[in-house]
Structures are given as C-alpha cells and as structure tokens.
Amino acid sequence: MSFSQQQIKNWQQKYPLLTKITDFQPVFWLNPKLQPLSEAGTLRASYEEMQEAENLWHRFAPFLAASFPETAAAGGIIESPLKEIGNTKKSLENTYGVKVPGKLFLKCDNELAVAGSIKARGGFYEVLHYAEQLAIDNGMITKQDNYSKFASDEFRDFFSQYSIGVGSTGNLGLSIGIISAKLGFSVSVYMSADAKAWKKELLRAKGAIVHEFEGDFGEAILEGRQQTKENPKAYFVDDENSKHLFLGYSTAAFRVKKQLDELNIQVDADNPLVVYLPCGVGGSPGGITFGLKQIYGDAVHCFYVEPTHSPSVLVGLMTGEKEKVCVQDFGIDNLTEGDGLAVGRPSSFASSISEKLISGIYTLEDEDLFRLLAILADGDGIFVEPSAASSLLGPVELSKTQYFSERGLDAEKATHISWSTGGALVPEEQMQEMYQRGRNALE
Ligand SMILES: *Cc1c(COP(=O)(O)O)cnc(C)c1O
C-alpha cells in the first residue's frame, strides 16, 4: 500500500515533527501513547512466555557449550557484560556540550559470543526453538534430556532434510546462518543491497547459501519469504513479524536485572533506569523493552534510536499506521551506514507492543554514528559498529530535555544504559576505517 500526497499532508499538519523528519533533520520524539504497565492491557507476549524462553536457553546450554567452545566458560549461556563507561560519558559531555547527570553503562552485545551482535539473542533463539520442535515432534528428544545430543551426527543428519530461510541486512543473516549450519540445516540468506560484503563472505564461509538483491531489506524479506514457502520442509524466520525473535530478545532482561543487582544498582520509582536501543524493524528493542518492563515496570524508561534516513518505527508509531507505512511513503530513502538499522518498514508484531511501552525515539545523522564510535573507542577502548554506537547519543539528547524534572525525578539518580548492539565480527581493517572517519568528523 502507498499513501496519497494529501494523506501525507494531513499527517504533516497533525504531527508537526513529521516535516523535520522528512527533511532528514534529527528529532527527539516523546510517545504520547505510552501507558503505565498496569494499564497497557493484554500484550501479544506474556511474562510466562518470556520465562519459557529463558528455560529453552538453559536446555540448550550444553549444546551451545559443546558446539561453540567460546561459550563453554559461561556454561553455554550467551551473555554480554554491562560496563560503566565513565570516560566516554565525559567525552560525550565535552563533545556535545551538555552535562549528563547519573551513571552511564554500556550493554556490550557487540561482544556477544559467536554472532557478535544482538542477533545472537533473537536469531539463535528462533532457530533453536524450531529445532527443538522438530526433534520433539519426531520423538528424538524430550525436554528433560541432555541437549548436547543436538550436536550429534544423528541430529545433524536429521536436520539436513530441512531448510531455513531469512531476509537480512547482515547481522540477522549471520546469526541465523551460523546457528542453522551448526545444527545441520540447509540455510539460505536473502541479503539486501546494503549488506556489507564481509558479512556475505563470512556467511558463505560458514556454509550458508547467500542470495543477493538489488533492493532494500523489505524486498529481500519478500523474496526470501516467497522462495521459502515453496518448500514444505523449509522454515522462514520473518523479521517483520516474528514472536520468537521477540521472545529471544526479551530474555536479556533477566540477565540485566542480575547484572544491575550485582553492581548494587537500585532501580525503582525514584531511581530510574533509562535504556537506549538501536532500532531497525523494532524486534530487538521491542523484545528488550517488553522484558525490562516485566521486571522493572514503570521504573524503566526505554528510548529507541534510528538514523534520520531510516526512521521506520518512528513514522509507524507517530502516525499510528505501524507496519502499514514505510519510510519511502514519505520520500525518505532508507540509505544509512548503520546497516543494522537500514529498515524501511517496522515489524508488525513488535510495533503493537512498542506503541504502549516506549518513552520515545530520537534520530541522528550518519556522521554522528562515526563520531560516537570514535568517542567510545578513545574513551573506553571499546570498538563497536556504527549502528550500535547510535545508542550513545541517547543520554545526551535526553539531558537536553526536561524529561526527568517534568516527571518529578532527580536526574542525578538515573542509571543510563546504552545498548551496544554489534561489532565483534567487523574485520579489523573496516573498523579502523570507520574509526578514522569518526576521528576526522570530530576534528
Ligand atoms: C538488527 C540490529 C539492530 C536492530 O534490531 P531490530 O530488531 O531490527 O530492530 C540494531 N543494531 C544492530 C547492530 C543490529 O544488527
């Protein structure tokens, strides 16, 4: 579906910020539909489902530990550290000329084992869930068994009859490709034109079949979905509408809770937790927001971040049309160096939940992605990909507003978490180039 010029004009009148958005100017948007959790009504996911998802991760831990030795030390639980980044905070304050009260942490999903990005949560989870279902349906395993069996030749031979398909800008394909190939599935990844060449090469090296498209992410998904559907023994991981991806992401909340407890960080009505999440289709930030809300209720405030050239969830939520609109409807080109965020149309599953639970969305220009990448590298020695660096601007943007004082909150008591969504697999040479670009932009 596409919208008439008149409709777009009506929206621009109703939502003045939309004109800035279509002019590619950065904006900070507060969500007028945010509900207190107690009034959010029934959502399309529940706490019980999130708990079940966490149980699945534990069942598969022996398999993961056996198949990916880098996860063995953590007992096969794939999790990332939460690090305070004090130097980066100072440097952000100096660069952007604003004081950021409270503490700033980085959730280092850029270090997540095996997939090197947040997709190790959602992507791995959905494939493991499918594999478990097949194995149970075929009488090969029960939930009480030791899942290291999934690493056996018998299981690999069995899964080799089945195919998995996925459309991706890069990281989702990497995560699905790696885990599916390890289990023995035949896996096809439909890549958009903006997917980086090194991601395609790495996938091929892991045994995935890579299909390349001229178009963007939406087209790659469409093609992948169609081709996968034609095969009765194939399963399509649908990033535009997947509850499994969402639940896989949500379990991060249990782990963050544990990490904050270990750091003795209090989160309650007077001590807000503010989380900044890079947003593509909205699945990973949606799942994590949902999970954190289940644990911290209204004491957690979640903001998404999108590039000025790919504000898909922003236009979807602002107009209320969600997955029915794409950025191209507004003359926005969906071209950005934040390849994990280069998504034109929001996820329908995640958007209905995000609509009620997120505090807002801010957008930023590509050059800031590189500046932030360099600030973090110089400040705390952590190298992340441009998409991930976008979350670092959140505390700066929020501190320019009256967000805390308007809510009767003391900004000094806030804990900020910028969610660093990817980076570990970026080749050294590419990382150096991106870092240099950021350094130059900072001069
Ligand atoms: C996929 C991805 C995101 C966004 O996740 P969505 O589920 O698409 O919203 C953010 N950062 C990186 C690095 C990613 O790969």
From TrEMBL:
Organism's domain of life? Bacteria
What is a single Pfam family found in this protein's UniProt entry? PALP
Enzyme Commission designation: 4.3.1.18
Keywords on record = Lyase, Pyridoxal phosphate
Q: Where is the Tryptophan synthase beta chain-like PALP domain?
A: 99-405
Names of the cofactor(s): pyridoxal 5'-phosphate
Task: Please give the catalytic activity noted in the UniProt record.
Answer: D-serine = pyruvate + NH4(+)
Judged by the first EC level, this protein's enzyme class is lyase
Q: Which GO terms describe its molecular function?
A: D-serine ammonia-lyase activity
HAMAP family according to UniProt: D_Ser_dehydrat
Q: Which family does it belong to?
A: Belongs to the serine/threonine dehydratase family. DsdA subfamily.
Q: Which PANTHER family match?
A: D-SERINE DEHYDRATASE, THREONINE DEHYDRATASE, MITOCHONDRIAL-RELATED
Q: What is this protein called?
A: Probable D-serine dehydratase
This chain's source organism reads Metaplanococcus flavidus
Gene name linked to the record:
dsdA
